[in-house]
Amino acid sequence: MRLKISHRTEYAYDAPLSYALQRLRVFPKSDAAQNVVEWSLAIEGAREEVRYDDCYGNDTRLLSIEGAPQTITVTASGTVETVDTAGVSGRHAGLAPLWLFERDTALSAAGEKVTALVTEIGEGSDLDRLHQLMLLIRGRVAYETGTTEATTTGEEALCAGRGVCQDHSHIFLGAARKLGYPARYVSGYLRMDGVDEQTASHAWAEAHVAEIGWVGFDCSNGISPDERYVRIATGRDYRDAMPVMGIRLGQAQEQLAVHIRVEQ
User: Fold this and answer.
1) Considering its fold, how many domains does the chain have in total?
2) Which range is the signal sequence, renumbered to this chain (predicted)?
3) In this structure, are 135 and 216 located in the same domain?
4) Are 103 and 231 part of one and the same domain?
5) Same domain, yes or no: 224 and 186
């Protein structure tokens, strides 16, 4: 599938900024499931200071803002060709060792609820058990926007029974690690049927299965990623793979608008 993607982030401030720094992870890379035909980054109100691959292999850019701008716009766009690999993204690679993805994080640590969920997983192959986990999470946590925040943990979302793809992924990470599988968070885009305009990027989880490698599980949709998915970044949880994060100095109040378009 050939997908055309545009991801525009707009910041507006009620007073000039004295200084701000942003970290971007909005550049996809080619792999077994996707080929990046072309991709570009347009920046207004800021400048790119440095680019590098982080320890997870994510293309990372740092932007600095000074000179008192009151609006900043960052637009990542391009074309990616994808194939359906049944969610398999390949062998582990990169500087981060595989054991790092067995470690808990503040957002994904398994508490009592997640630990209890793990006990419901029946016998079967590694893939059978992980698919069971995905469907259990989908059945227990309704997809509802506006019910959680970026700081909500997987344990909190499971207790509430509501959340979004970020929360589903954090629950899966904690439970999969409890089962003994290295697991990581994936940020990216999803081509939704009949919907071009979106207000947020997508997220899912991957578990590392011996003899296969990394396998994706999208609890929000109950499937392993197919040709409609484009991966951008990976990490131990949302904070490692979030598309945009930053800091700013001053008292200016910020208004944020995100416009994403994914079309075939």
Assistant:
1) 2
2) none
3) yes
4) yes
5) yes
What beta strand segments (E) does 147-242 contain? 162-163, 183-190, 197-198, 202-209, 213-217, 229-235
Token reading at 228: 């409609």
Note the pLDDT tens digit of each residue in 249-264. Answer: 878 888 889 999 999 9
Q: Supply the pLDDT for residue 67.
A: 67
Alpha carbons 243 and 166: distance in angstroms, whole number: 13
Gap between the Cα atoms of 216 and 208, Å rounded = 9
Residues 45 and 83 sit within 8 Å (Cβ to Cβ):
no
Same domain? For 219 and 235 the reply is: yes
Q: What is the CATH number of the domain that holds 195?
A: 3.10.620.30
- Tokens representing 73? 């716009």
Structural domain harbouring 48? 2-82+244-263
Confidence of residue 246 (pLDDT cuts 50, 70, 90): confident
Average pLDDT score over the chain: 94
Q: Residue 228: which of 216, 237, 241, 239 has the closest Cα?
A: 216
Token output for 13: 């401030």
pLDDT in tens, 24-51: 999 999 998 999 999 999 999 889 999 9
Q: Are 205 and 226 in contact (CB under 8 A)?
A: no
| Phi, psi angle pair for 109, to nearest 5° | -60, 140
